[in-house]
Amino acid sequence: AQKITQTQPGMFVQEKEAVTLDCTYDTSDPSYGLFWYKQPSSGEMIFLIYQGSYDQQNATEGRYSLNFQKARKSANLVISASQLGDSAMYFCAMRDDLMTTDSWGKLQFGAGTQVVVTP
Amino acid sequence: DADVTQTPRNRITKTGKRIMLECSQTKGHDRMYWYRQDPGLGLRLIYYSFDVKDINKGEISDGYSVSRQAQAKFSLSLESAIPNQTALYFCATSDFSDSVDTQYFGPGTRLTVL
Fold first, then answer.
1. Average pLDDT, stretch B89-107?
2. Least C-beta-crowded within 10 Å: which of A10, A49, A65, A119?
3. Are A29 and A98 in contact (CB under 8 A)?
4. How many A/B residue pairs have CB atoms within 8 Å?
């Protein structure tokens, strides 16, 4: 069974500073995808970034980058130059991409990390 | 206009009532999903559909049913609502032909069962 762990329930970060959100996952499947979503206080889920298990390079999208350490099964999100609008809940999720498994195609989410950016 | 819409956005109902949550999408995606979010638990998959004729149970399907009326529409029903179904419900869609198959979420429906 898959499992996603986000060990930081909440974090404070100063504006313009970088912040790293931890995510570890547990799977025995060789093919999988890792996702990060942002949920602001308004409630919607916003897709931020994706990393495939076979991708050689860490994914980047603007101020977001994913620090993918496959051997350690970690997929930490780094937000550079934090802005007040980055205050939100952040979720790490994994999808099993092996078609022969029951969990194929389904996203499993971690419990989330609440980030508060202060001026 | 939003690509994934959910109606209603907020609903308060009583124990034992039947309620339907609707999801529509204009993204042309073939896959649709229903999740619920409870505080501290992240999102959990209720049902998913990979095409119009394909319906599958997710992690927590008991007490729920779904209908895929068309490629663009996927409804979630609570046949007899109970208080512990109070939660934030999300619909999501994805496109299998997209190499990443990213799921895109609707705005959510906040359901309260009294």
1. 91
2. A119
3. yes
4. 51
**CA dist., res. A104 & res. B26, Å (int):** 25
Q: What is the mean pLDDT of residues A54-70?
A: 96
Phi, psi of B48 (to 5 degrees): -145, 155
Q: Does the pLDDT of residue B20 top 90, yes or no?
A: yes
Average pLDDT over residues A71-95: 97
Q: Do B107 and A33 count as a contact with CB atoms less than 8 A apart?
A: no
- A16 φψ region: left (φ > 0), alpha (ψ -120 to 50), beta (else): left
Asked whether the CA dihedral B95, B7, B68, B79 is positive or negative, the reply is: positive
Nearest to B42 among A50, A91, A105 (CB): A91
